[in-house]
Amino acid sequence: MKMPSLKQVILLRQDLKLPLGKAAAQAAHASVDAVLKSDKKILNAWRDQGMAKIVVKVKDEKELIYYFQQAKEGGLIVSLITDAGRTVVAPGTKTAVAIGPDDEQKIDAVTGKLSLY
Fold first, then answer.
1. Where are the beta strands (DSSP E) in 14-91?
2. How distant, in Å, are the alpha carbons of 63, 76, 78, 86, 103 from that of 38?
3. Does 60 map to a domain?
4. 117 found inside a domain
5. What is the DSSP code (8-state) at residue 83?
6. pLDDT band for position 3 (50/70/90)?
7. What pLDDT, in 10s, does the model give residues 99-115?
8. Can you give the residue range of the structural domain that contains 34?
9. Mean pLDDT of 6-12
10. How many CA atoms lie within 13 A of 18 on its CB side?
11. What domain count does the chain have?
């Protein structure tokens, strides 16, 4: 059985206006956490395909949670990052979500309309 095209999509909040390094760290936290929750077979196939990752923007926390819930209800692996608040944002701030890695079409059904970060 051939694996479908796989990817991971990472959502970052625009309203927080995170410095580039902080945004990269939050995206990395989300990506790693989702990978740790993923099925080994999918991870191996994703790695073989080049580990595609797409970073997109959401307007605010409400939109971040909306897409998190949509992906979760769609049976996708998801990770929601809540910051410890040691640097730029207040403790408990929800900063990023990672969806997948999983079938590109399943993820696009949830995040396909979002713009690149």
1. 53-58, 78-82
2. 24, 10, 9, 28, 12
3. yes
4. no
5. -
6. confident
7. 999 999 999 999 999 99
8. 6-109
9. 98
10. 26
11. 1
